[in-house]
Amino acid sequence: MKLAVIAFVASFMLLGCSESVDVTTDTGNTYDWSSMQGQTVVVNYFAEWCAPCLRELPELNEFHHQKPENVELIGVSFDPMSNEDLAALKKKHGIEFPLSLTQPAPAFPFERPNMLPATYVIRPDGSVDGPLMGEQTLDSLNNAVGAE
């Protein structure tokens, strides 16, 4: 009986570990970097106090609506804030792309940037380009993901 319980617990733990979530967005999408196949994810760090970050929002919104099918865009608040504050910030600034929720805390395959705005590109093979520093444009984002 004891061996059966141990086997059950071990199998349960293995099943639980196979479906890890690294990032959850406010739109309900989840990302697990180890199982991403054929996806490119653009991660843009911003802050409300960062004027260049606010200036690039229209370009990010446009990229979000015109991006290639295999590309995702996620915004990340540089400052810690609650999910409710994040939702208010999104509404206030007209952000149209998904934002990473702060709870649960996201896990990215790169270090948090030291300066803003900063954009990273996670390739389908798991490699990371960036940070791309400064304001991004529709053209620079398309170039970063290899879109025409």
UniProtKB/TrEMBL annotation:
InterPro entries: AhpC/TSA, Thioredoxin-like_sf, Thioredoxin_CS, Thioredoxin_domain, Thioredoxin_ResA/DsbE_sf. GO terms for molecular function: antioxidant activity; disulfide oxidoreductase activity. Residues 3-148 form the Thioredoxin domain. CDD domains: TlpA_like_family. It is found in: Cell envelope. It holds the Pfam family AhpC-TSA. Keywords: Cytochrome c-type biogenesis, Disulfide bond, Redox-active center. SUPFAM superfamilies: Thioredoxin-like (SSF52833). GO terms for cellular component: cell envelope. One of its GO terms (biological process) is cytochrome complex assembly. The keyword Disulfide bond applies. This is Thioredoxin.
